[in-house]
Each structure stands twice: as structure tokens, then as C-alpha cells.
Amino acid sequence: MVVDTLENGDHLPKTPFTEAQFVDLWKAYTKKLEKDGERIMASIMNADVPKTKGHLIMLNFPNEMMKAEMLKLRTKILRHFREELNNYSIDFEITVSEQTASKFAYTPQEKYAKLVEKNQALAELKKRFKLDL
What we know:
49% of the residues lie in helices and 11% in strands. It is mostly helical and 133 residues long. The protein has two domains: 19-96, GMP Synthetase, Chain A, domain 3; 102-133, no CATH class. 11% of the residues are buried.
């Protein structure tokens, strides 16, 4: 069953699903996007593990750009999950948390600092081989 709009799905099925089922489907969809060459969208979807609250899928992104990109493809993504889970009341609730942004490193120096936090041997490697960033 294909539903072209997201409005008024009152008469459509609302089969219950668990958070684990949704997360498994989310991960599979992300892998499909990567395989299909849609790496940016897959990366955005990998930025957060969704939580479910009834029929709402709660997402928290580190910036407005990621939220905007997710909203651009909202119809396509929701259609996929609604059909797979046979629940046409599924919807997203997306928040932006600036605190989450600190998890992401953008410059080479920030990336290096994050890697050193995870493995101190990297600093020794950089020093021993006189490597630059």
C-alpha cells in the first residue's frame, strides 16, 4: 500500500512495534542509503540512535542543518518506515541540541584531539615519526 501524502492516516493500519524493531529497521535503511550512494543522508541518520515514544520517533541532532536535511526527505523516509512496520501513524519529532555538537570534530586538529582521547599511543606515534596535521 503506497500513501502519497502524510496527512490523515486515521483509516490506515497502526500495527504496534518495539523500539528495537524500529532501530533495526533504521540501521538497515541507513546501510541501504550508503549502498545506494546517498552517503550524506546516511551520515545524518547515523548521527543519532532514534528513540520511540508510542508512534513518535524522537531524534536529536547537533545542528539545524542536519534537521533541515532530514525534514527535506521526511516524506520518503516516513513512507518507508510506515510501510515496513505497517503503522501509518509514525512521525518524527526532531530536536536540535547544541551540546551534541561537541561530539563532532571538524578540523584536522579537532579530529586529532578526539583520536588522542581514545588512544594515547597516537600522540607518541605522531611525536616519534614527526608527523604534521
